[in-house]
Design goal:
Elements: E1 8-12, H1 25-37, E2 42-44, H2 57-69, H3 86-99, E3 103-106, H4 117-131, E4 136-141, H5 143-146, H6 152-161, E5 166-171, H7 176-186, E6 192-195, H8 201-207, E7 211-214, H9 217-230, H10 234-250, H11 255-267, H12 284-296, H13 307-310
Parallel strand pairs: 1-2, 1-7, 3-4, 4-5, 5-6, 6-7
Keywords: Lyase
Pfam family, one: DHDPS
Family: Belongs to the DapA family.
């Protein structure tokens, strides 16, 4: 897809924290800059991997502002702003727009289960009307986590009602047929489909999708960048195989603490293991297992990342 606002590889960025569980913008900004220098075209901050729903409204604003103040380009970031509360969703989206972000990622209102498509359409209509334009809205399809899916019918309704504002979707369902259907149905109208699963990057690009927004990109973005640049051929195929292997390594243990473990060991920075409950740090056997799996995938050491560089 040409001219996609976030076309390419986007990391669902881990949120760094201090020992008292406060956001750590210095550590997070350094990681964000490394990602942009090592295969990432953009950054999905404050999504599932970033533990957005473990942070309050003021903390989420401060994280975005802190990254921008430390030189992470606002235009490269797609903050997660979808909340169960309509007013919070609107407030965070307006804040992201005011900071210079080009797009935001919206979870559906996830507390009440089983809403109708009509109810979801009414919710997103309110968001669009209250925000008033000036920022692209991307929908977050992750039914395993939110328990509220986006049907093709609902997407069609929203696109017809708000063309150019409802700009795309991140599909973290792991259902490639669903991603494929979204591309085939809506990409001709400029709708950007992003895979939330690394193993589908090469395939979704070939289909006409825009790229990926993935957790494992925190540590495999180098290979994602190769796939996005090359698309086909031996180098792209080998890089895609590494993406698939690293995704499987990342999901061999609880995903978020597992990625924190990989970054902590790669940088020598134990602070990356800090995580907010209800998530927990990995057990020692789990930590050894994910490190071994990442090594077996052929993805260590991480290109361009070293303890010395991480401290700069």
């Amino acid at each position: 897809m040409k001219d996609a606002l976030f076309g390419g590889v986007n990391a669902a960025v881990l949120t760094a924290m201090t020992p008292n569980l406060a956001p750590d913008p210095d550590r997070m900004a350094a990681h964000a800059k490394w990602l942009l220098a090592n295969g990432c075209n953009g950054l999905g901050i404050l999504g599932t991997t970033g533990e957005a729903n473990s942070f309050g409204l003021h903390e989420r604003k401060a994280i975005l502002e802190g990254l921008i103040a430390r030189g992470v380009p606002a235009a490269a970031m797609m903050p997660g702003t979808g909340c169960a509360s309509l007013s919070d969703t609107v407030e965070l989206t307006l804040h992201a727009r005011a900071q210079g972000c080009r797009g935001v990622l919206l979870l559906p209102p996830f507390y009440y289960k089983g809403p109708s498509d009509d109810g979801l359409f009414a919710y997103f209509s309110e968001v669009v009307q209250r925000v008033g334009g000036g920022i692209a809205l991307y929908l977050y399809h992750f039914p395993q986590q939110s328990a509220v899916p986006f049907s093709l019918s609902l997407l069609g309704q929203l696109l017809q009602a708000y063309p150019g504002t409802i700009k795309g979707v991140k599909d973290s369902s792991g259902d490639y047929a669903n991603m494929q259907a979204m591309v085939r149905e809506f990409a001709r109208d400029g709708f950007e489909v992003y895979s939330g699963s690394d193993e589908f990057l090469q395939a979704i690009l070939a289909e006409g999708g825009a790229g990926c927004i993935t957790a494992a990109s925190n540590a495999n973005s180098h290979w994602g960048g190769i796939v996005y640049a090359k698309r086909t051929g031996p180098e792209a195929d080998a890089a895609q195989a590494t993406l698939t292997a690293t995704r499987r390594a990342a999901t061999s243990v609880p995903l978020i603490p597992g990625l924190r473990e990989v970054i902590a060991r790669s940088t020598g920075d134990d602070g990356w293991r800090t995580i907010r409950p209800p998530h927990l740090k990995l057990t020692a056997p789990q930590a050894e297992a994910v490190w071994a799996a990442w090594q077996a995938a052929g993805a260590l050491p991480l290109p361009g990342l070293s303890p010395a560089r991480a401290a700069e």
